[in-house]
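Page 42, continued from yesterday. The earlier attempt failed because a stray header line got pasted into the input along with the sequence. Redoing it now with the clean sequence only.
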Amino acid sequence: MASSLTRAAPLVGSIGALCAISAYGAGTIEIDDTRWVSVGAGIRAGMSLVDDGAPSGEDDSASFDIQNLRLYVSGQAHENVRFVFNTECSSCVFGTGDPFDGGKDIDVLDAIAQIELSPAFNVWIGRMLTPADRIEMNGPFYGLSWNQYTVPLLPSDQFGQAGLMGRDDGVTVWGKVGRFQYSLGLFDGIDGGPNQDDNLLYASRFAFNFGDMEINPGYYTSSTYFGEAGKILTLGLSFQQQSDGTGTAAQPGDFSATIVDFLYEQPLGRGAAVTFEAEYKTFDAELTPAALADPTCFCLFDGDAYFATFAYLLPGTGGPIRYQPYVRYTKNEPTGELDSSLTEVGVNFVIRGHNARLNLNYTSGDANASGYRGADTDKLFFGVQIQI
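This time it went through. Structure tokens are written below.
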């Protein structure tokens, strides 16, 4: 039988990546005692109202949006050998075409050969999430807030030549020893463009659990366990680097990112829980004025960013829905550019953890996933998230 979750990281901003299915939640075909195949799916959709967001610039806009639509397939060929294959309907996210036009808009999200030898040492090879900070490893399905991607993102989330939806082709070694968890990976990174010497991207994440151990598949993460995982107190450190990882072929520059993230969750009486999440990012992108002026530039964010989120899961009342109000503040400080910020106030209506929940949130500000100042908008959003 399948004994772990299979997760696909989410599209950012739907950026970045993780949808998941569990052995008991998906359809599983058992071949024998050690071989099985499991199938599942996930969707995130909603409606937004944006103040003065209509094309006229004077009227409010209303729009429906399918942010993520995914199919998950996983299996086991041997007790130590597994695979994952996940897809994303890109047209559903971007509105670039008909998702039923023969499948040409279906993207391969993950394609991973998994050699899992022990809790301390495992190897994944293929197309997968690059080891990174918590919100990248969550994906939208396992975040605390609905709009967690309002800080600058790593190269594999730029929808360019350096990967897609937080994924890249490469290899990751990961495991846990006591309360310490690690993941180390080598990836293609930016392919072509400034990287004419074919340098690889190095990606890593290290985390120490001071409280109870976080239990997630592989090296993935979550930003809330709805008080069901005990006392969580985890500090994480992520680092990515690639020589000639930004700029242009004529004006290449090195790229590196260092990120510290923190998660605290404390169960209280009658099923209540408090959750606090915070993160600080510093990106170093060596970009020349000539590269910045070139429209072909693979220009990554340069500067600092941070956010903090506080949530309170109300005590259970015996009904089918739990309520988790939260507030989140984001600040981006790009080098030589104007700062941006965004405040989100929302509530999660939790029906079955991350597999079935609703969300209502209000955002105000000008921060976004590029890290640079965008339009200053006020938006009201209602979303639905379902996974099987």
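Notes: The mean pLDDT is 89.
Reminder to self: strip header lines before submitting.
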